[in-house]
Amino acid sequence: MAGERAVYMGPRLRRLRRDLGLTQADMAGDLDISPSYIALLERNQRPLTADMLLRLARTYRIDMADLAGDGATEYAARLQAALRDPMFTDLDLPKLQSEDVATNFPGMTEAFLRLYTAYQEEQLALADRDAETPRGGDGNARRTDAVAEARRFLTARRNSFPALDEAAEALAATVAEAGGFAPYIEARHELKVRRLPLEVMAGSIRRLDRHGRAVLLSEALDGAGQKFQLALQLVYLEMRQDVEKALKDGSFTTDNGERLARRALANYAAAAMIMPYAPFARAVEARRYDVEAISRQFGTSFEQTAHRLTTLQKPGHERVPFFFIKVDPAGNVSKRLDGAGFPFARHGGGCPLWSVHQVFRTPGEIVTQWLELPDGERYFSIARTVTSGGGAYGAPKVERAVALVCAAEHAHRLVHTSGQPAAAQAATPIGATCSLCHRTECGARSAPPIGRQVMPDDYRRADTPYGFADD
Question: Nearest-CA neighbor of 371 among 436, 428, 444?
Fold first, then answer.
């Protein structure tokens, strides 16, 4: 037909055929064309006409918009993000070329992205090994840290799992149509949601009682906690395959590391159901990253919302990249989530000059701070205390501090910096951690930096904890 619009989408057709488990001859028979014509289509030597697109959609019950849509857009965005790595800076890699590669060679693009992700994980593992091996010690004797393994898995992917976001958003729409989590779980899984006293739950906040056909929640949970636990239970009921798919390309040496990563992905999916990517991304821009206001809009806690802000790196739909950390009053780090690739994402966070360690004096209040690392890079920090536990008289509570950090170049997009031009703000000089910080004049130092010689104080005592040789 003269009016038909022809498109070339050979790689996509090949992937569709393979996903369906068909040979070229099988597909040719289904579509009533020759196998040689299928081969020409897959090699982009013949265009795929609108009539052929319609035939494919009808034969295999595929949404034609999905089939004919620009499926290479996400691949191209992911490829361009990977190619921004500093190791490629000496190469001329025009955007148009990466788009062509993603469009015409999706299999090769996926292979490259898998290799790049594996490379990132290995780089993180090497950094962890160097940081955790005592000087003069044997690196092979280092105890494998399951928590570090799980953190490496998340950090290598910038805490972003677009496939989980999409699956969770689709499920969230179905839940909303049913009237909420409790009605949906009862209708779909024949499980009633029941709230029980703290003492009856015997140390649990959520439990699936298959014998009693119920999801049991502790009365100690507040509204945000109840919603999250129901979403999490729904992930385990309906999204196990999605979670396993996201987990399968991880490299784990311990069972505990894999279990912790699996749990992190389940929590990610639960948050994605409560705060679906598209509406949440619109809301954060509209409210200029006002964490408290966004929390009220979605009925979530401050910490849940802060977590979600670290995940908004879906290729082509990125928002401000954040680093998240949670510490207790003793300075122990219980959680790190890195959507930005910050230099203190794995071993940093222990600098006493950072306000995240001082907000315990002003519980519940947001404290902002401009930060500057020794290399001159500047960041903006939002810190506040959060409380877990409690919910009844005498129930134990645990208070921790959380902080969200973004690079100074993004800070103008945050409501917290209104009227505060980054260049005009005095920044607090901090270090990732004392052993990695070479600020010799710091009076808050608790340990000498690696590689510096400590001067004897036989004749002179510096006004800082350590004096160092000039070399």
Answer: 428
